[in-house]
Specification:
The chain has 340 residues and is mainly beta. It contains 1 helix and 28 strands.
Length: 340
């Protein structure tokens, strides 16, 4: 290919480079999963190479090598999130429908016990390794329940006076959580079990998913008004504000490639490159499937996993259901595999 105009040639070359860079990410596979219930968070187990997918009243478990269904953790009504404690050989599921945490064995997937939480509707859930504690973030309770993972006892309830959403940890005693109805992010001392700071994120509306670059202390918070906020976790100041898709719920960070992700319900996955601790840019918008709002990733293979299903038309509004949800079309629930 040749260009007679040098300026035009430079522009065309730039467009080709951007197109090639965006096209590198693609939807590689879909794994059909039986059942027609709703879904929420996912979690990746790098030791056993398994993907945990919340689904209706259970957690489906997918073999990441074969991309086949490998089992399930049953009886988790209103399931939201999954937290993994590798050193204890345990997994923890937030069951919002029963207001509890279901503890299971990571190897056998067998149920170990169930713990009632102190707040209403446990949603996001996190294991903090330095304290060996599990934190549930209770949406309607507007608080956080702290559980000792070694004895499965409730240790404390932390009031956040807000609707907590997704959370991350640095693994050294600091927990960060989005506060959806306060457009803020809070820092919790895992050992003292108290809120240290609450930082507003101006320009962010209804933050949900949260990811963390531990090395550079950068938080990636995704917001309902189609932006990703990059926040310095040492003092809470906003470093960047980047455009993403519509209907976001999940986020992730790949430390090997220094990339952050936002999974959006409009059927896009926004890929953001962290060029250095101060500079961030949108690298690509990858086509996925409508409704694929939550995600997890494998930092070794660099695969991103999302879940979704097709939906039929929504029923008409009523007094009991002013905003009815569209029903899931049977047999369409799937795990999506995005590859670089």
């Amino acid at each position: 290919m040749s260009f007679s105009n040098p300026r035009r040639g430079s522009l065309c070359l730039l467009l080709l480079l951007v197109a090639g860079r965006a096209g590198a990410w693609h939807l590689a596979q879909e794994v059909k999963i039986p059942g027609d219930g709703g879904w929420d968070y996912l979690a990746f187990d790098g030791v056993a190479q398994r993907i945990f997918v919340s689904h209706g009243t259970r957690v489906d478990v997918i073999d990441a090598r074969k991309l086949t269904v490998a089992g399930a953790v049953d009886d988790t009504p209103g399931v939201h999130g999954i937290a993994l404690a590798q050193e204890l050989g345990r997994g923890y599921v937030s069951a919002g429908g029963s207001g509890s945490v279901v503890v299971f064995d990571l190897k056998t997937l067998a149920r170990v016990t169930e713990i009632k939480v102190t707040g209403e509707n446990p949603d996001a859930i996190l294991y903090e390794p330095s304290t060996r504690r599990v934190f549930t973030f209770n949406g309607r309770g507007r608080n956080v329940t702290v559980i000792g993972a070694t004895d499965n006892q409730v240790l404390a309830t932390i009031d956040v006076d807000a609707k907590p959403e997704f959370a991350v940890t640095d693994g050294a005693g600091h927990v960060f959580v989005n506060l959806e109805d306060r457009n803020s992010v809070a820092e919790i001392d895992a050992a003292a079990m108290k809120v240290l700071h609450t930082w507003p994120m101006e320009g962010c509306e209804e933050p949900s998913g949260l990811a963390f670059d531990v090395k550079h202390r950068r938080l990636f918070s995704v917001c309902g008004n189609r932006v990703m906020m990059v926040v310095d976790s040492t003092d809470g100041h906003v470093l960047a504000r980047l455009p993403i898709g519509q209907g976001v719920d999940g986020a992730g960070f790949d430390p090997g490639r220094q990339m952050a992700f936002a999974s959006c319900g409009d059927g896009t996955l926004t890929v953001v490159r962290e060029r250095n601790a101060q500079k961030f840019e949108v690298m690509a918008s990858v086509a996925t499937r409508r409704g694929a709002r939550t995600m997890t990733l494998d930092p070794v293979s660099h695969r991103v996993y999302l879940s979704t299903a097709q939906r039929g038309p929504a029923p008409p509004p009523s007094a009991a259901e002013p905003r009815p949800r569209a029903p899931v079309i049977p047999g369409t629930f799937a795990l999506l595999v995005i590859e670089p």
